[in-house]
């Protein structure tokens, strides 16, 4: 390939790491994307976000990162941070600490999970720079990150959600006992979760009232606002959504079901270890075994959930399918993981879109959508 051909490839900034507890998952997501992105079509530009929030291009080989050996990869703190800058010609540049240009950026793929990456904050930065970005915009990212407000949006769109209570930081500081009494009125078992976290960090299954206070304190380690959900009896079914081109409606994948294999250990639910570090802890059944009419119904509801938060690009919607035939939505994830065993790419792989093609689809959708109000 000639030099001129290389420079004509759109430059895709892969942003990963970040300040949240999901930092190592983001690093491994980036490693997988770097290995699979079509480099004849795109020029990837990997940039890590250290725990401090500083951006780095130093001393990293993300393609070697993995969670399977039990290690947790991390972006090193940079000696000379980099940043983005709007150029005078209307483009966006990556610059070093002295302001020297390190090349243009045509589109950004924010492979960031959790607060300060998936919650609309960094999406706002891209908007101010007029920089197209893969995935949801500011509003959808913020609503999709917050387990309380996403439920409010789902209810407004006519989707069924399970019973829940939210404990704010003010609630807890003023009268923790009243907050516990309110949350404890839900039907057990309860699931206590940080309102704005993912990858099962800080989540506790609570079987009896005596366990509730400690579970709330554990969730508050990750977020001062906590959501307490009543357990739902039903199968856990997931559906991946991929935006449509132009005026086409969003696309929904075949449904997938995660089956946690009980005899492999202490996984009471699909926790961090079961998701990323224990290959034998869970199995994916896709398409999930259910009648065709229920598959169609799920796909319709997943698209409705995507549109309820004004989604763009991609999302994964998680539902409970109850014994009496109801679909209860649990949550939406606006930047699902892309690790080798992540649900989102696996669902599309089994729905006919291979991994590398999926990355290309997402980047094309971002460039097509552009920046600004929509």
TrEMBL record:
- Gene name, Swiss-Prot/TrEMBL: ddl
Put simply, this protein is called D-alanine--D-alanine ligase
Q: Which organism is it from?
A: Micrococcus lylae
Keyword Oxidoreductase: yes or no? no
Q: In which pathway does it act?
A: Cell wall biogenesis; peptidoglycan biosynthesis
Short name of one Pfam family for this protein? Dala_Dala_lig_C
Q: List each copy of the ATP-grasp domain by range.
A: 151-364
The organism's taxonomic lineage, starting at the top:
Bacteria, Bacillati, Actinomycetota, Actinomycetes, Micrococcales
What would be an example GO MF term here? ligase activity
Catalyzed reactions:
2 D-alanine + ATP = D-alanyl-D-alanine + ADP + phosphate + H(+)
Q: What SUPFAM superfamilies does UniProt report for this protein, alphabetically?
A: Glutathione synthetase ATP-binding domain-like (SSF56059), PreATP-grasp domain (SSF52440)
Per the record's keyword annotation, is DNA-binding included, yes or no? no
């Amino acid at each position: 390939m000639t030099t001129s051909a290389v420079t004509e490839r759109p430059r895709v900034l892969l942003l990963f790491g970040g300040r949240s507890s999901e930092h190592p998952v983001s690093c491994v997501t980036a490693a997988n994307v770097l290995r699979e992105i079509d480099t004849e079509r795109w020029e990837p530009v990997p940039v890590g976000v250290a725990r401090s929030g500083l951006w780095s291009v130093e001393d990293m080989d993300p393609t070697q990162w993995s969670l399977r050996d039990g290690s947790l990869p991390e972006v090193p703190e940079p000696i000379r941070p980099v940043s983005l800058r709007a150029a005078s010609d209307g483009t966006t540049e990556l610059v070093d600490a002295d302001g020297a240009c390190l090349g243009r950026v045509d589109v950004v793929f924010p492979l960031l999970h959790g607060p300060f990456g998936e919650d609309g904050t960094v999406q706002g930065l891209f908007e101010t720079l007029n920089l197209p970005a893969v995935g949801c915009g500011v509003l959808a990212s913020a609503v999709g990150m917050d387990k309380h407000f996403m439920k409010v949006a789902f209810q407004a769109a006519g989707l069924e959600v399970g019973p829940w209570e939210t404990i704010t930081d003010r609630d807890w500081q003023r009268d923790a006992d009243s907050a516990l009494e309110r949350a404890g009125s839900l039907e057990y078992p309860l699931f206590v979760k940080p309102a704005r976290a993912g990858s099962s960090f800080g989540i506790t299954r609570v079987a009896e009232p005596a366990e509730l206070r400690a579970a709330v304190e554990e969730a508050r380690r990750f977020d001062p606002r906590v959501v307490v959900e009543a357990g739902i009896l039903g199968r856990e079914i997931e559906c991946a959504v991929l935006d449509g081109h132009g005026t086409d409606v969003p696309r929904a994948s075949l449904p997938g079901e995660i089956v946690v294999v009980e005899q492999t250990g202490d996984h009471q639910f699909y926790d961090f270890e079961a998701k990323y570090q224990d290959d034998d802890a869970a199995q994916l059944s896709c398409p999930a075994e259910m009648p065709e009419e229920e598959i169609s119904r799920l796909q319709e509801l997943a698209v409705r959930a995507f549109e309820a938060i004004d989604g763009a690009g991609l999302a994964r919607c998680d539902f409970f399918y109850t014994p009496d035939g109801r679909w209860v939505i649990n949550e939406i994830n606006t930047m699902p993981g892309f690790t080798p065993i992540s649900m989102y790419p696996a669902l599309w792989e089994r729905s006919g879109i291979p991994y590398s093609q999926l990355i290309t689809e997402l980047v094309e959708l971002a460039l097509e959508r552009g920046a600004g109000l929509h």
